[in-house]
Amino acid sequence: MSKTLQRVWELENVIKLVDPHRDALYAYDEAEQKAIANERPWKADPHYFKGVRISAVALLKMVMHARSGGSMEVMGMMQGKIQGETFIVTDAFRLPVEGTETRVNATDEATEYMSQYIQLCRDSGRMENVVGWYHSHPGYGCWLSGIDVQTQMTQQSFQDPFLAIVIDPDRTISAGKVEIGAFRTFPDNYKPPGGGGGDEYQTIPLNKIEDFGAHASQYYSVEVSHFKSSLDSHLLELLWNKYWVSTLSQSPLFTNREYGSKQMLDLSQKIKNAEKSIQANSRGGPRNGGRDTQLDKVVRESSKIANEEVTGLLAGEVKAKLFNGVGATAPVQVQTSPS
Q1: What is the pTM of this model?
Q2: Which of 213, 198, 176 is nearest to 5 (CA)?
Q3: I want to staple 232 with a disulfide (CB 3.0 to 4.6 A). Which of 57, 163, 170, 315 is the partner?
C-alpha cells in the first residue's frame, strides 16, 4: 500500500522521472555556475527566471517541515543550481528559527547553523549553492506578505540568484496535493506592465487581503515543476515511509478542524459583503456587464471548501473500510451436540 500511495502522491504533484542513466539535474559544474553568477543575466531582465524544478526529496522535506509547524510558520533553505532561466532545487534543510502564526524571525543562531551546514555539505563533496528560502503560510495561501517581500528583496540584492517558496500545509492536507508557490521580487521603482503577484486565482482570508493587495505588484510568480531520479529513489522511499504513515493516521477533517472553521467564518463574512455589493449595484445600476465579480469569487470559494470537505469525508470512509476491525479475531462458534 505504501508504494501505491507514493505513486498517487507523485501523480498528484506531477513529479516526472528524469533520465535515470544521466541524472543530469543533479550534475553540478562549479565553473559553469561561477560563470553564470558573473554574467548575471537576470540584472537586465526583471522577469528573467521563468520556472523552478524541485526534486521530490526536497519537496517532501519542505512539506513535512511545514506540517510539523502546525499553526506556526517555519522556515528553511534550498540548495541547487541555475540552469538557463530555471532554478534547480536538489535539496532543502530546516532552520532553527522562532516562528509565530504570521512570521518567522531568523536569529544569529540560524545564520550560524546555515553556515555550518553548508560547510559540512561542501566538505562531503556537495558543492551546490543556496538558491533560495522557503517558509509556510498555514491556512492563508501561497503569496508574499510585506515582510516576505522585504526579506526576498534583501536576499536578491546580496545573494542573487535567489528564490522564495511558500507552502500552505493546511491546504495541502485538505486538498491532498501540495499547495506551493515560487516567487521573485522586482527591483525598486520597477512597475510591471501587467501587474505582479500570482497569476492564478486563490482564496485569501479577509484579514490578509489588505497585506496581499498592498504588495502584489512587487513580485511575480514562477512556474513550479517537480522531478525525481535514480539517485534519490532510496532516500525518497525512506522519507515517504514516515510521511505516509503520518498522513494515513490522520483525518483531514479532524486535523484541519480549526482551519475548516476559519474558512467557514471567513466565507460567511464574504457572503455578507457580496450581498451588500449586490444591493448597492442594484440601486446604482449593474456593473461589469451585469456580473458581480465579488459574488463570482464567493461561489468559487464555497465550491472549493465543499470539495475539500467531501474529499475529507471520502478519505475517512476509505480508511474505515480498510482498517476498522483489523486485528480483531472472529467470534468462535461453539457447536453443542443435541442431548
Answers
A1: 0.68
A2: 176
A3: 57
